[in-house]
Amino acid sequence: MDILLSLDRRARQPLRDQLYDALRAAILAGEVPPGAKLPSTRAIAAQVGVARFTAEDSYARLVADGYAVGRHGAGTFVAPLAAPPSAAPDDASPPSGPDAGSGRSTPTASATTPRPGPHRPWSAWGRRVADGAAPPVATESPPFAFRHGTPALDAFPHALWRRLQTRAAREAPPAELAYGPAHGLPALREAIAAYLARARGLRCGPDQIVVTAGTQQAIDLLARLWLDPGDAVAVENPGYPSVRRVLAAAGAALRPVPVDGDGLRVDLLDDLAPGAKLVHVTPSHQYPTGAVLPLARRLTLLAWARRRGALVVEDDYDGEFRYGGHAVPALAGLDAAAVPGAAPGPNAGPLSAGDLGRTDAAPSAVGSVVYVGSFSKVLYPGLRLGYAVLPPDLVAPFAAAKALTDRQAPAHAQRVLAAFIAEGHFERHLARMRRLYAARRAALLAGLDAHLAGVAARDPAATAAGLHILVRFDVPYDERALVARATRAGVGLDAAGACFAAPPAAPAVLLGYAPLPEDRIDEGLRRLAGALRHP
Amino acid sequence: MDILLSLDRRARQPLRDQLYDALRAAILAGEVPPGAKLPSTRAIAAQVGVARFTAEDSYARLVADGYAVGRHGAGTFVAPLAAPPSAAPDDASPPSGPDAGSGRSTPTASATTPRPGPHRPWSAWGRRVADGAAPPVATESPPFAFRHGTPALDAFPHALWRRLQTRAAREAPPAELAYGPAHGLPALREAIAAYLARARGLRCGPDQIVVTAGTQQAIDLLARLWLDPGDAVAVENPGYPSVRRVLAAAGAALRPVPVDGDGLRVDLLDDLAPGAKLVHVTPSHQYPTGAVLPLARRLTLLAWARRRGALVVEDDYDGEFRYGGHAVPALAGLDAAAVPGAAPGPNAGPLSAGDLGRTDAAPSAVGSVVYVGSFSKVLYPGLRLGYAVLPPDLVAPFAAAKALTDRQAPAHAQRVLAAFIAEGHFERHLARMRRLYAARRAALLAGLDAHLAGVAARDPAATAAGLHILVRFDVPYDERALVARATRAGVGLDAAGACFAAPPAAPAVLLGYAPLPEDRIDEGLRRLAGALRHP
Predict the structure, then answer these.
(1) Domain A15-78 top-level CATH class
(2) Phi and psi (nearest 5°) for B25?
């Protein structure tokens, strides 16, 4: 038995490990067949030029790991192992696929062959995900990046947050490091419930809240619990692309319903989305137009959902940022307040505010609205914490889905956030950010007027809220060319085309103003204007 | 128009808010119909006994929020709103369900009516999740709790971890707080790849690693990408209940394959799990028996998976804890090494260790094994970080699924963990824990012999590894009664019945020794023996 081996004396890997690896590979590759006798340790040591004890070490490990067996006095033999696996599966295509019977599927069979990786029998979900793969996160950072959905990370109270992190790590009982409730840390759920009552007029019990890894996960869990392939789902048009992707991956039949200056055209639901089992809506600040859904439409939407047994997902992705006027009450709050048996009916006798207090705290079990909120925009996206407020009968299935999917949100971050909210830091931070963003928004509007009048028109629906403005450009080239020109001038723009069911005639962009100081906003828009003017 | 209202003067809520709430509820409940004139502010102030400006405040907010409209000089009128939603959906059952045509579904129609919450049109996945809802996490803590799957949380280096947390928070560039790569932080993926090469003999590039929220999420994502309802899946019997639940929720047809003293009976796969698209296996330390899958079976399993185009999920949930002997090489490592084109074939000319080094670093694109690892057992479960090592062509779809599901793992915890591994703390901690757990394991075995000989028999497959031992009890009552007796004596036991496809004849328990010091292990077993003896 002659094995050709050579070791690399300059490599950092010890020679005994190199020898072990080389012999193991030769065995696995079938070069030394099962039952064959290996060279004596003396012979192999001489062959590759190592000390004999080095070879003995390598052989001992081969035996210990099961690649070889030592027979006393007779030497070391290759273990009786299975034949080395062959690379090509003999029946890789699932028999039920469209390619059944045609043998190996061809590269052109794109319906069953997902893009990355050949000959893999993906699930239907897997094929949909691979087909609609999310665009990569922007990593380049031009000096004037009008990123939407990103808060002012430099204005985040880092020192305070670090202090709370350290304290939370010190104070957390050891049991909190073990597996905890899938619903989330009780202290955090209580802090969120109290905040929602104070700030959003949404009264719910902490037991209606499940902590998630952001709204993305909340919506994914709802899609899994609620939607079968083929189920109709109403989405806003234009609307939030990430949500559309989740719903499309679930196999839902998306029914885009237009949005006007008052948000979702609720009156068109029956015509455009008959039988929809779920409606995704952004009533506080429509994504991307910025419209606010008026109370009358909210009530109509609730009545429609009740009648249909449909679920309304109220996505309040940045509803905390409103720079003037009252916030319209959350759909989820109206849902709870309007449930008969919860709010007393016309013949229920004298109405007292005390009754109402009880009412709101114990809404009926047949609510139609799931409110999803996020800390990504208010604190920072990398935190990965959000929550869902659910009608009572949906809580247990939702938490079971969360447990099955990833058990629970991380314990430490939940404790830090609970303290941040409960001790008032959250609302102080929010108040500061509102002032900051209101000023940046004003700078953006002034800059658009000063530098881009006649070229860039902001969506008329935009209200004084949120972290971005939808802007349409009157230019003789498309969105991609617009973004490329801007990038060359050092200006980062987020294209908005993906928000629309059909590409808009004029290139549209989401101008995020939160991460840029006023002077950079003005300078960025000045540069953008220059970049668009010159051919 | 007479509205009956009463306010609660002892409540903490300001009177103006109480009045607003009461009027709003009356409007929503339809007590004051659309178009009706509200009482004058003077009248209502007198009626409920508040100052007139308080009533004016409440009315102004009703107008601002859209519940009422003010007509100059004429008074305040209820806004033209939709009729109050009615609670009962008129067509809540999906038309395709078995109850179609029979009107309202009855409480006995359990196939379409999920357990929690009536009349909800759950998805098929939702019904499976609601049916197989995970048992609640144990919250009671008897003084002698032999919890499996929980490390020694009191031996965790809390102070060091806090220091790294503080440093990570200080050092993280602001961009890291924004959305990052779905794959995970590059620094963490590099640290994991280097650790796997050093400690587990698994050589992979950092670009084959995707960071997840623990192995639970990794397996859920694989199930979604790979399995359609009805697909056959081979699982170990006995095996890991949480994984079985995830696979069952995906609609997979579970094929339990027996386990013996050498782990999964790979030879029975063709008979018992023909056409299985996925095999879940715990080769380092079979869950729950503790068997180690020998090299020969590993190679047979790989060859089988290749032949079938099946995916092998190598679940290394606690493989770091081995208290003697060499670890058998990871399946994922064998998979990469055995791929033709990666390892040179018999006619590939002289074999050099240098070739092998290149080989392992760039495995072929047709691997069959996904290795999933977790930091829950090595650090702490509440951290919620784990990872998958994927064949190269599976990385992009898996990361796309992760992005769709919850975007990415939290940034801060990833940075802390990356530093913990890269700076050597992880392997030092592991070494300390191995010594600690080896001693605790010895105490458990000694205690079983001393106190429970003839009553409790440990599984013969158990190797010196892991954090628990599977023990069968020869007692004249069932598992539930056994656990109840133990609990009354202050001893916490984790029943193992759920690990088995069919309930075992003798009650079985997972005795976790990691969280208890030796003296408490001995005392706990002594008490357990007493509790079992007395009727």
Answers:
(1) mainly alpha
(2) -65, -40
